[in-house]
TrEMBL record:
Pathway: Porphyrin-containing compound metabolism
Single GO term (MF): oxidoreductase activity
Keywords: Cell membrane, Disulfide bond, Heme biosynthesis, Iron, Membrane, Metal-binding, Oxidoreductase, Transmembrane, Transmembrane helix
Cell compartment(s), UniProt: Membrane
A GO cellular component annotation in the UniProt record: membrane
Organism, scientific name: Agromyces cerinus subsp. cerinus
Name used for this protein in its record: Cytochrome c oxidase assembly protein subunit 15
Main location: membrane
Pfam families recorded: COX15-CtaA
Gene Ontology terms: biological process: heme A biosynthetic process
Domain of life of the native organism: Bacteria
Length: 302
């Protein structure tokens, strides 16, 4: 893969994480309706007017990132187009990121039009996490040869890793519901779901602690068996420990906005790291081996 493709791919990943951070800033500063319309900021003006104050600037800044983000996704897709036959895995991942970025922009429009409906805001964040995971998968596969892949770990370890990823997904989803019921609605006049957020916070902690325990088992097993997932499973455990610390801090200090924002960004990075761990369960089969076994080198992405 070319250096230009690597630059665009990394830019795509970083910008997708960054827009989660800026989207969190919009929500946590009550700037969700800083721009009351879409795609313009207010009727008759693409950019925020002085009357909108700092809320308009914050919301518009978040929207502005969508432009470079879409360009980065489009750049990756264009650059990988010429390799679409031999690297079908990268092509599919690039298409998914590009399409989801467009979908995400449209969801953002409905979030504004529906005045920050909790379900839409939660869905908006969830889509962003999915995009970050796919962009991370692209980065991981970009540095590997294409072709057939084979299991590089014992089958029980693979099963446990997939169980852990499912628990992580549950943790993130419960966290989305918890935030949807919390005080940070994005605008001081918006009513949330009405569910007791303190109860959901405890429910959110259960899969979180299960995730931490499962990840610890993965790290120990990878270390004992010298598996290729060791480095990334350690990284996953480290991020989870920080995430648990931030979660406990925000729960005990009344959900300060900065801590909530950090928690949101860390959740996306945790999911991205888990994605890499799952990908490391398999390794590329050398071309000569695949050819000898009659396996088409192009049939990758398994």
């Amino acid at each position: 893969m070319t250096r230009t493709l690597r630059i665009f791919a990394w830019a795509s990943f970083v910008l997708n994480v960054l827009i989660i951070a800026t989207g969190g800033a919009v929500r946590l500063t009550d700037s969700g309706l800083g721009c009351s319309d879409w795609p313009v900021c207010v009727p008759g003006s693409l950019i925020p007017t002085p009357e909108l104050g700092v809320h308009g600037i914050i919301e518009f800044a978040n929207r502005t990132i969508s432009g470079p983000l879409l360009l980065a996704a489009a750049g990756v897709l264009i650059l990988v187009w010429r390799h679409r036959r031999e690297r079908r895995d990268l092509f599919v991942l690039a298409v998914l990121v590009f399409v989801l970025v467009i979908v995400q922009a449209l969801v953002g429009a409905f979030v504004v039009w529906q005045e920050l409906a909790a379900a839409l805001v939660g869905f908006h964040y969830t889509v962003s996490v999915v995009i970050v995971c796919i962009a991370a998968a692209f980065l991981a596969r970009m540095y590997e040869p294409g072709g057939t892949r084979e299991l590089a770990v014992p089958k029980p370890y693979s099963v446990l890793t997939h169980i852990t990823s499912a628990v992580l997904a549950a943790t993130v989803l419960v966290g989305v519901f918890t935030t949807a019921s919390g005080p940070h609605s994005g605008d001081e006049d918006v009513i949330r779901t009405g569910v007791d957020a303190s109860v959901l916070a405890h429910v959110h902690a259960w899969p979180g602690y299960a995730l931490l325990a499962l990840t610890l088992v993965l790290v120990i097993a990878a270390w004992r068996l010298k598996l290729p997932t060791l480095r990334w499973s350690i990284a996953l455990l480290a991020i989870e420990l920080v995430q648990v610390g931030v979660g406990l801090y925000q729960a005990r200090t009344g959900l300060p906005p900065l801590a909530v924002g950090v928690h949101m960004v860390l959740a996306s990075l945790t999911a991205a790291t888990m994605t890499i761990v799952v990908l490391r369960l398999k390794r590329p089969v050398p071309a000569e081996v695949a050819s000898a076994e009659g396996s088409p080198v192009e049939a990758s992405a398994r």
